[in-house]
Amino acid sequence: MPSCGVGDNGHVHLTRFRIMTVCTGNICRSPMAEVVLRDRLEAAGLDGLVDVDSTGVSDEEHGNPIDPRARRTLADHGYAVPGRRARRVPAPQLAERDLVLAMTSGHAAALRRLDGTADIRLLRSFDPTAAVGGPDHLLDVDDPWYGPDAAFEQTLAEIEAAADGVVSHVRAALDR
């Protein structure tokens, strides 16, 4: 649920809906998801109401930029890719997010160990064509790191397939 506050005039006001995308090192999947979601939320007219950031469950890539192959794939599909640096998810930030989108069931399990009360979901659970109802690992976003450039195309396709479902979820949450 988006954060609310009470202004000086006594009226309740909505702050921003906060989303965090999470993968392993925060250089491929989660920043790709961050970029796609920002783009889709802006297209839906929600960018002024929603913040999206990304992190990793590991600090092995801390401080590194987005993988050049991920950057190139996003740019080739018309996405603006901001300069950014990888960071590990700080446990307290999970409670500050309205929705945490894990790229794999393993990431979701690691996040739940950090904060069992946060709204942690698999990104692909928002993809209407994904294998919902089966084992969670069937909803994992493929890791392109060890694959060819085509693997980044597949990862982007999986993220894009879920993005509109996330936008619908956010719109419904904001309407409540």
Structure description:
The chain is of the alpha/beta class. It is built from 5 helices and 6 strands, in the order βββαβααβαβα. The strands form 2 sheets. Strands 4-3-5-6 form a 4-stranded parallel β-sheet, sandwiched between helices. The protein has a two-stranded antiparallel sheet with strand order 1-2. Helix 1 crosses helix 5 (149-175) and helix 2 (68-76) packs across helix 5. Residues 3-13 have low confidence and may be disordered.
Q: Quick one: how many beta strands?
A: 6
What class, by secondary structure content?
A: alpha/beta
Which of globular, elongated, flat, extended, rod-shaped describes the shape? globular
Catalogue the unreliable spans.
3-13
Q: DSSP helix count?
A: 5
Residues in β-strands, percent: 15-25%
Largest sheet: 4 strands, parallel
Strand numbers in spatial order across the main sheet: 4-3-5-6
The radius of gyration is 16 Å
SSE pattern, N- to C-terminal: EEEHEHHEHEH
The separation of the N and C termini measures: 8 Å
Mean pLDDT over the full residue set = 91
Helix content: 25-40%
Oligomer: single chain
Concise description?
The protein is of the alpha/beta class and 176 residues long.
List the helices and strands and how they pair.
Blueprint: E1 4-6, E2 12-14, E3 17-23, H1 29-43, E4 50-56, H2 68-76, H3 91-95, E5 99-102, H4 105-114, E6 120-122, H5 149-175
Parallel strand pairs: 3-4, 3-5, 5-6
Antiparallel strand pairs: 1-2
Helix pairs in contact: 1-5, 2-5
